[in-house]
Amino acid sequence: MAARVRAEDRECPLSTAMSYVGEWWTMLILHDCFDGYTRFDQFEANIGLSSSMLTSRLKTLVESGVLERRVYQERPRRHEYVLTDFGRSLRPILVAMAAWRNAQLAPEERAMVLIDSETGLEVEPVVVDPRTGQSVAGPRYVFTSGPGAGEGMRARYAS
Fold it and tell me: How far apart are CA 48 and CA 54, in angstroms?
């Protein structure tokens, strides 16, 4: 029987990224974290995930370095879950995913929008190349193998 290849063992950064955030429950937990939730009971009430499943997801996020588990109360001992720097770096991904979905909805159908907190105006985020200011969504920008690529990745992008 062939050994199962874990996503984090693959060379592709998309596969590795999905190993951190690929389950939709994980995305909802992260969304709650960015909205300021830190405690188990807050996640449980807001998401509606069973306590055993939530425990498992939080444990995975802590083990992967996305969240840090901290004691906030000694008696009884209680923990909170706080985003690490690595976890906070996922915010643009969540913002982009929400924007992608909202772009397919009429403005009156959008249940959640991103706004500029200073102006109150809705914003539509784009991923841009900082050197050119151009959106990377167009055909000008393509993937190719990087300096750390192995034989398989180099073969994929050889042409």
Answer: 9
The per-residue pLDDT for 11 is 75
Query: pTM for this one?
Result: 0.80
Percentage helix, strand, coil for the chain under 3-state DSSP, each rounded to 5: 45, 10, 45
pLDDT for 6: 45
Alpha carbon distance 11, 88 (integer Å): 23
Q: Which two tokens stand for residue 18?
A: 């999905």
Domains in the chain (CATH in brackets) are: 11-89 (1.10.10.10)
Structural contact between residues 150 and 12, judged by C-beta atoms closer than 8 angstroms:
no
Tens digits of per-residue pLDDT, 132-154?
999 998 899 999 999 989 898 89
- Report the DSSP beta bridge partners of residue 68: 82
